[in-house]
Structures are given as structure tokens and as C-alpha cells.
Amino acid sequence: MLYIMQITKNFKLCEFENSRTATFRGIDNSVKSPSVKANIKALCEKVLQPFRDYLGREIIVTSGFRCKELNEAVGGVVDSQHTLGMAADITPSDYGNFMMRDIVWLITNLPFDQLIIYRDFIHISYVATDRNRRKLLFDDDVPITWQVQVYRAITDYVLGLER
Question: 21 has which bridge partners?
């Protein structure tokens, strides 16, 4: 019988280990380190599960944990938080992108170390053992006009001006 480790109400460890690239290349991407498991648990408890509860719908983890070999195979940076179980790339299950209000809610209500907005997914990280930097970044492919809209929406929310 296969044991599935439930991390939170809606997230399982296998979602963080799953990788098409790892499967295709025969890379064992299973989490062996207790500290990495603890980091994934903290990311789920502090960020992903509260965001999932807010959305009221499934979040797909498109990239979670990456062992060193997988991280190299996908071209990840050497010090990627994915290798420590502190980061996940996520997308909503029922439409192509997160809505502006979803991103603003996440930024203003949840702790995070890094939030990188891409065209079709979000990279989010959380550091349980240190101060989270709350660093907001955009991929180069995200138009500057959309970046300005995000910053304006955050400002409006913080100032109580949201429409």
C-alpha cells in the first residue's frame, strides 16, 4: 500500500515531489531530509493553505521541491529555495492566471519571502527559520503596464481605496 503524506487539508507531499522532468530523466525527486519536509510543511501551513482557503478552489503546484539534480536539469539557480523545500510555483486550477484581487490579497495578508509574478504562474517562498523579506518581483515577460496595475492595486488596498 502506498502511503500519501498529507501536509495540510488540501496539500500532499507528493505534489511537491512530482516533476515531469524528473520522471522523463529518471531522477529520484523524493524528499528525504526532515528539514526539507519541515520547510514544505511551513510553506503550506503559513502561505499555500491560507491562500487556497481564500480562493475557495484548488491550487496546482507546478514546481515544488527540486533535488539538486532536478534543479540543474531545469536550469534553476544554484541557491534556489526550491532545493530547500521553501518555494513553490503555483497556478489556479480553474482559469489561466490568478486575478489581480487574488494577488493583492496574497501580498497584503500572507507572509512570504519572495513572490515572483510570471505570465502564467506565481513563484512563492516562505522561510520559517528567518525573517521573510516580502520581496515582490516580476518576470521580464510581464508587461510594465501590468506591473504598474499590481502596484496601484496594492496601494489602493492598503489605503482603503479599492473599488
Answer: none
